Amino acid sequence: MVELGKREVEAVILESRPISCSRCKGKLFYIGSGKYKCERCENEVMDDFGKVKSFLEEQGPCAAAIIAESTGVRLDVIEFFLKKGFSEQNIKELNDV
Fold first, then answer.
1. Rg, C-alpha atoms of the chain
2. What CA–CA distance (Å, rounded) separates 11 from 57?
3. Burial classification of residue 22, based on how many CB atoms lie within 10 Å of its CB (0-12 exposed, 13-18 middle, 19 or more buried)
4. Residues 47/49/51/57 CA torsion (nearest 10 deg)
5. Which of 82, 43, 46, 50 has the alpha carbon at shortest distance from 63?
6. CA distance 3 to 14
7. pLDDT per residue over 59-92, tens digit each?
8. pTM of the model
9. How far apart are the C-alpha atoms of 12 and 41, rounded to whole Å?
């Protein structure tokens, strides 16, 4: 896998944001911690940050490669989160772009 630069990783993060509900195609609203809720059916979906955060909360600290394999989130995106110390506020600011 080709390692991405900061701008490319930010673009991948933005592209990973869910746009519509996977169940009913309804509009999603950001509710925090990388989670989005459907206005129509109340289904919750996660972006890459949410997937990584949820995995770490459930499994505890582990290697980035294991997180990537378990969540489907690109390794370079996970490494970017870890290097930048990404918090919910950082993700919200990126999502607001």
1. 13
2. 25
3. exposed
4. -150
5. 82
6. 17
7. 888 888 999 999 999 998 888 888 777 655 444 4
8. 0.76
9. 27
